């Protein structure tokens, strides 16, 4: 008897409610399997996802479940439920299903397959028509919005904060309560609050949150769900963010200037400037105040990406709260490392800020580099550490290989039990309450085992990368790469320039001539010295220019990570490195230690 799974999809909530719904598709799949005597193991459901992409949770789960061999057939209502892309159709049917000996069935299109040449041609044609239909729907929606905008009507989307839409005329009107907040934001940013000092975006966001004023997303009922997809339930964010304040301070609609068809500066332009359609908005902010806000925003010192990225970004962590440290600039000039947990925007929910120290980047980079290079000078200790890691790696690898196989078999066994339970329920041999309880328990066990299998597989991949790095270090130790020094030498080089002539292309006249030249120059070279010590040369190179890239690659090979605590900085890796006392940074005037950490930090 065939073991089948179903796949159902709708792209919008409206289609789910009023079109051929998920449940209607699922019922058709159940009836089809029942008529053929197939066991229906599971139905995968994607609600609120477009067929233009394969990046859908349950479709990806279906693909991941194929190696478990818990089913041999995939059933769907129509091919366009699976995908509306011709390229994706061939990929799924040939590279995913057929390569794994999975049969597939389209209930409404029984001829769909890629094994028979004629059927493959029809399948390709159907998928091409489905893709064409999707593109036509997109184009009709785009043109509909464009036509609405040309008629002066609202083209769709969320109404901008500070305005409301007249349900009769479709025009934008001022929402007095929200408009008061918009004006307050501009006034605080340009002129300041009762203190007389202009406020920054983060301070404004904090102040509005403390006043209990809901942000635009909460007012409009926008829920933040899984990847923001339609149909996904999520959380309504009730605190203001820097990004929301910045959007209000930069949106030209508040001075009565807004256009349909104008995309963000990073977006692919869909319309040329000549096609932009002005959308009338009542002006909330006068031009002078808006201009002052833009001038202040330009003057503000933000960390520009033209700054050199500090060496340890991405491998430095907070030992107190567990978050990463970020690279920042103190007063726009001095690079520092600071925990993300110190930022206000991560604590608008009332959670305490992290009390980890704020450290000078250049000084910490130097000290960590010195520690690592000192460790490289002790090959005996390094070899001992590498051997210990290899032994631990082999032991863990064998353990994971023993765990992955049984977990796969356990999932298959539980899916068999769930299939039997579904069969008994359909035959009426088990009451609804008992079925729901047992099915829920089995589904939870399957989900837990899948999650466990996922983590074990990821750890196996990490161990494979670790094996490569351990092998690199072992070979470097055997060949003495880190015991070679370099000395500067000079060598005389003779340079020759051939004679040259320049002809005017218009007149054909000789314009300029250069005679043959020869010149001897002295060029500096670096020469390796056997048995030397590369520590100082590596350090000097690493602290300047492209040497930082080389050093970071070495850190990654050695799996170097840095962990900051109140009293120390721990440097960890595949080789023994050591700690740095936090007191060594206190002489630096940019050093910051949060005073309230003893009572407010976990």
TrEMBL record:
One Pfam family, please name it.
Answer: Resolvase
Recorded GO molecular functions are: DNA binding; DNA strand exchange activity
Give the matching InterPro entries: DNA_bind_recomb_sf, DNA_bind_recombinase_dom, Recombinase_CS, Resolv_N, Resolvase-like_N_sf, SSR_resolvase, Zn_ribbon_recom_dom
Q: What is this protein called?
A: Resolvase domain protein
Q: Which CDD domains does its entry note? A: Ser_Recombinase
Q: Which GO terms describe its biological process?
A: DNA integration
Q: Which residues form a coiled coil?
A: 432-476
Is DNA-binding given among the entry's keywords? yes
**Domain Recombinase span(s) in chain numbering:** 160-303
